[in-house]
Amino acid sequence: MSAALNDGLPERIKDALRLVIDPELGYNIVDLGLVYDVSVDDSGEARVIMTTTTRGCPATGYLKDGARDSVEATAGVTSVDVVLTYDPPWTPRMMSADAKRHLGIAEGEGW
């Protein structure tokens, strides 16, 4: 893969992942804090480490499939591996300020 195509690829992948909306919360998985890491090697193989809000979340398959499909559609990606983890466990503190506002959560509220 050319260096020019790989430049900014992790950020472009995160932008693509913002198209995946959690069906229960109605907001994208990146700003909800469900995407822990995005990495890409020199050959364009992407790896996304993500979580769900709870173990046994009924939307787990939907979210993983959406993440995979979004990353696969990103120019420069040759393959993708979506890894689900619960370490560390997700908390509302992981959400962006925009996601908290969208959900009506005030900054600094004790969880």
From TrEMBL:
Segments forming domain MIP18 family-like: 11-82
Pfam families for the chain: FeS_assembly_P (PF01883)
Annotated SUPFAM superfamilies: Fe-S cluster assembly (FSCA) domain-like
InterPro entries reported for this sequence: Fe-S_Maturation_MIP18, FSCA_dom_sf, MIP18-like
Name assigned to this protein: Metal-sulfur cluster assembly factor
Organism field: Limobrevibacterium gyesilva
Lineage of source species: Bacteria, Pseudomonadati, Pseudomonadota, Alphaproteobacteria, Acetobacterales
